[in-house]
Amino acid sequence: MIQDDSMNQAGPIGGVAPDRVGSARPGVPAAVAQTGFGFSVGTTLPDQPGRTGSISTPHGPIATPAFIVVGTRASVRAVAPRDLVELGAQAVLANAYHLYLQPGPELVEQAGGLAAFMGWNGPTMTDSGGFQVLSLGAGFKKVLAMDTAGLANDDVIAPGKDRLARVDDDGVTFKSHRDGSRHRFTPEVSMRIQHQLGADVIFAFDECTTLMNSRAYQERSLERTEAWAQRCLAEHARLTEERVERPYQGLFGVVQGAQHEDLRRRAASRLAALTADGLSFDGFGIGGALEKENLGQICRWVTDELPGHKPRHLLGIAEPEDIFAGVEAGADTFDCVNPSRTARNGAIYTRTGRYNVDTLANRRAFEPLEPDCDCSTCAQHSRAYLHHLVKSKELLFYTLATIHNERFTVRLVDDIRHSIEGGFFADFRDDFLGRYLPGRRPR
Ligand SMILES: [Zn+2]
């Protein structure tokens, strides 16, 4: 069984140390002593819900706000776990849908859980698979972030094509994007898979809607997601009892409700009140379709309704201006594939915005990707070298560019955390966003 607490480079903020299941230590909150999982709030922003904190997990602490790097298939593409340690990543988020299809949750369990399987000595999270089941199975991913002004359509799912995923009140039946084989996820199935994968933070199975869905559909979907949340909590309680020898896994409920204030608030307050066999959600995810201009407002509606002593994770967000908005509104952790995905497309994040390293201007640029970046790529390599690698289609390009972009994002959120601790968040935000030219909308 994996119980390695050596991944500790960030250090706890609130004095809460990672702990093992069932042990009690002086000064450690009761919930942490019982389960190895907990959260403590550190410094709060004046007149805002934003705060620093520390999430305790059986595999070590996460100092928050934190950017969680995405390793969908138990791998951050092209980057070894030892490089993730070096670039300061505190935790990795993998995906239950992908690991269910390959290599299968039983195998990951046999390996000692997700962290041991991938050789990562730190906290892990798994996304429930709900988003992937629906988006990969149904092909609506592309419309999640589109400008949908004036559009309302409950049948955006694969228009004119085979419908690969079908939602009913009990779960989702879908075809694998790999081989077309048929599968079914229910809240209970997702919980069993995520218990086998063994991540420290797992998410309730939810239906992720799009901005194109009608208000009536959003309401129906939210009822369904709430019923699924209750079933997830009950199955989580049952599995936790059954697998008491395993490290405790924190279960986060996911707040949906799209752009509607009443739906978001209702979803958040109802999820916060759910219990099953004495367990309640350990934290909350804020998910679903978010228009960029409303992101901070939507987060604020949600965090208004959530209990302050539990962590909140903003799903699928990595653009700097979105992270600032999320932090101010009280989000504690973030994840997104964008830093690695954009790196593989040749786009480099810097504190003044993104640029493409494959342009002619970089052919003879012998300076680092970003002059004051402290990543291993910038310490050793030039833009000209990366320009050459991408033009030559060398695999090393993916590694070096991804290390830079992941470090950029991790460091930005670390700097935000330090600015809250130091009482200069507003100055740091204004200075950063004053120089940063926003990129395109992520995901
Ligand atoms: Zn760099």
Indicate the topology:
Layout: H1 30-35, E1 38-44, E2 51-57, E3 60-64, E4 66-70, H2 81-86, E5 92-95, H3 96-101, H4 105-110, H5 114-118, E6 124-127, H6 130-138, E7 165-167, E8 172-175, E9 182-185, H7 187-197, E10 201-203, H8 215-242, E11 250-255, H9 261-273, E12 283-286, H10 295-305, E13 312-314, H11 320-328, E14 333-336, H12 338-344, E15 347-350, E16 353-356, H13 376-380, H14 383-391, H15 395-422, H16 425-435
Parallel strand pairs: 4-5, 4-14, 5-6, 6-10, 10-11, 11-12, 12-13, 13-14
Antiparallel strand pairs: 1-2, 2-3, 7-8, 8-9, 15-16
Zinc ion (ZN) binds next to helix 13 and helix 15.
Question: In words, what does this structure look like?
Answer:
This protein is an alpha/beta fold and 443 residues long. The protein has two domains: 282 residues, TIM Barrel (Alpha-Beta Barrel); 88 residues, no CATH class. The chain is built from 16 helices and 16 strands. The strands form four sheets. Strands 4-5-6-10-11-12-13-14 form an eight-stranded parallel β-barrel, surrounded by eight helices. A three-stranded antiparallel β-sheet has the order 1-2-3. The N terminus is likely disordered. Bound molecules: zinc ion. Zinc ion binds next to helix 13 and helix 15.
